[in-house]
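Tokens in:
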């Protein structure tokens, strides 16, 4: 199946990756410390700042900022080097990760701070801890407890924009349903690259790609354009009344 292109442009990215079949990728605290070391080394190579992170047993969240179009290279080094370490330590063979990492390009400040709160509350929402402060593997927890933070996070938003009192207030109350609803809406909002300006912009509405008078050739071109602009194959299929498999075939033809 053809894959929708990622937005790897400079800016803020929320990244999630899980173990294959949701198996654990961290077996103990030593693994989590090693992951942070590998993370900081990759950040140094690619000039990336970590603004937040949360390491759970079977997945991780990162909020990073890149200044060049190097997200894929950064993630390849991070995931590849950690997989080599973990497989060697545990004497396992095969893929460690479930597949492609998930990533969302963060396109406004409100979305950015909602993402931070979402990442920090992962352990609380999972029932692992009752407070952010009690779970050691988030950046917010380290700051609230006065623990040294990874060098790649020294310039993070949490470390530089908040006093300890402000951070306590910012992370003091769990996310309410309205805040979660807005975050889900942020993630669904499709953004794309403006080829003329080189800037990120909101994609045009899906319906604007299609007209009732289109012939099959024009419709297929519109399908591919919508896909390239960030719309999922399933949303396009639903809109044009085709199966997801047919839309996938159309997209694949343009990628040959």
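Residues out:
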């Amino acid at each position: 199946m053809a894959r929708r292109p990622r937005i790897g442009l400079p800016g803020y990215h929320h990244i999630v990756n899980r173990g294959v079949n949701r198996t654990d990728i961290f077996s103990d605290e030593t693994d989590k410390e090693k992951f942070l070391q590998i993370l900081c080394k990759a950040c140094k190579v690619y000039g990336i700042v970590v603004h937040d992170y949360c390491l759970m047993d079977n997945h991780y969240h990162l909020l990073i900022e890149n200044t060049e179009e190097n997200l894929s290279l950064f993630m390849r080094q991070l995931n590849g080097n950690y997989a080599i370490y973990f497989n060697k330590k545990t004497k396992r063979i095969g893929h460690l990760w479930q597949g492609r990492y998930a990533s969302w390009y963060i396109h406004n400040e409100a979305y950015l701070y909602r993402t931070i709160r979402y990442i920090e509350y992962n352990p609380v929402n999972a029932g692992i801890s009752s407070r952010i402060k009690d779970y050691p593997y988030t950046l917010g927890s380290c700051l609230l407890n006065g623990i040294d933070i990874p060098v790649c996070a020294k310039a993070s938003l949490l470390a530089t924009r908040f006093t300890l009192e402000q951070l306590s207030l910012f992370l003091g109350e769990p996310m309410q349903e309205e805040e979660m609803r807005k975050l889900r809406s942020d993630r669904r909002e499709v953004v794309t690259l403006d080829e003329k300006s080189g800037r990120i912009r909101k994609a045009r509405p899906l319906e604007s790609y299609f007209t009732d008078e289109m012939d099959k050739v024009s419709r297929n071109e519109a399908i591919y354009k919508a896909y390239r602009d960030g719309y999922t194959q399933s949303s396009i299929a639903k809109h044009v009344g085709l199966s997801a498999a047919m839309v996938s075939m159309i997209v694949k033809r343009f990628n040959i």
